[in-house]
Design goal:
Elements: H1 9-35, H2 41-65, H3 76-106, E1 111-113, E2 116-119, H4 135-170, H5 174-178
Antiparallel strand pairs: 1-2
Helix pairs in contact: 1-2, 1-4, 2-3, 3-4
Amino acid sequence: MDTQQTLSPLTIALHWVIALTIIAMLGIGFYMSINEYYPLYDWHKSIGVVIFAVILLRVWWRMRNGWPVPVRAYPALEHRLARATHWVLIVGTVLMPISGMMYSGLGGYGIKVFGWVMVAGNKNPATGQTEPIHAGLAQLGAFTHEWLGYLLVVAVVLHIAGALKHHLFDKDRTLLRMVGR
């Protein structure tokens, strides 16, 4: 269990595995879309599905364990900003893979996890062209996935800035606690 002084090894592991994966996936996602570099999509989708399982474990752990207790009292505005940022990160990391799977699966592209077909693509046998299973929901998934990417970048930057503020200016144990010290 997490305390004001220490976080459990599971809390720390889930935080860092998800944080590093999401940061990498955001970078890969923006790179692919800006450069229209399609060979990375299968990796992006595979990692997204796998990390989704880890994200669900983290949500379960957060619900069971509660939010970490702050290492000390903070001004109300700072506490609200931190709580809002944490909620955006938790909800955003859940919705990001869901929206990506909606976009890919319902867009007819299918979903494969490292070559294993979870949802088959939908190709027209006559033309060989990919056809959406549900164009409207696929577009909603694509729109949500893109804009959640921007929102998560902002939330990650705020989260890192907050951690650095605690460490460099407040000189408290917030960041040290998250690295297991």
